[in-house]
Inverse folding.
């Protein structure tokens, strides 16, 4: 397994959509993407989800694409969504030493963990911990 460093092109990662189960490309060329790794058992993650949802709504269809990746079972993540519904794209992945968060630089295994991928698929930035408000996300997500 290769760990992507800042400035490098991320490996091709595709994960199932939490709601539909259909595969979704996480990396590769496309819009600027903010990818947030979370889990329902993570207190800071729970508080951050509405912040990311508000930020995603501010971005609309042409701004930064927000994607969340639940590092837990589909059932656990869906149960959380019934409590805290969000509209942005949510994917699911079994956590482990080679999961996509590690491939994108989360060597400390901390959640929440957020990365910014540019339109060419390069890893621009990483962030450990929760964002307190949409303005903090906006300030960090500038390429």
């Amino acid at each position: 397994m290769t760990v992507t460093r800042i400035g490098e092109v991320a490996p091709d990662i595709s994960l199932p959509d939490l709601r539909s189960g259909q595969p979704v490309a996480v990396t590769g060329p496309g819009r600027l993407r903010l990818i947030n790794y979370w889990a329902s058992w993570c207190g800071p993650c729970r508080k951050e989800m509405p912040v990311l949802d508000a930020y995603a709504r501010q971005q609309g269809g042409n701004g930064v694409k927000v994607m969340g990746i639940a590092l837990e079972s589909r059932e656990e993540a869906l149960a959380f969504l019934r409590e805290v519904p969000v509209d942005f794209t949510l994917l699911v992945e079994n956590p482990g030493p080679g999961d996509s968060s590690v491939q994108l630089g989360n060597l400390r295994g901390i959640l929440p963990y957020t990365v910014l991928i540019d339109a060419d698929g390069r890893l621009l930035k990483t962030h450990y911990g929760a964002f307190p408000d949409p303005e903090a996300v906006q300030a960090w997500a500038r390429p």
Notes: The chain has one domain: 16-140. Strands lie at 14-16, 23-25, 33-38, 65-71, 89-93, 113-117, 123-128. Residues 22 and 68 are 15 Å apart (CA to CA).
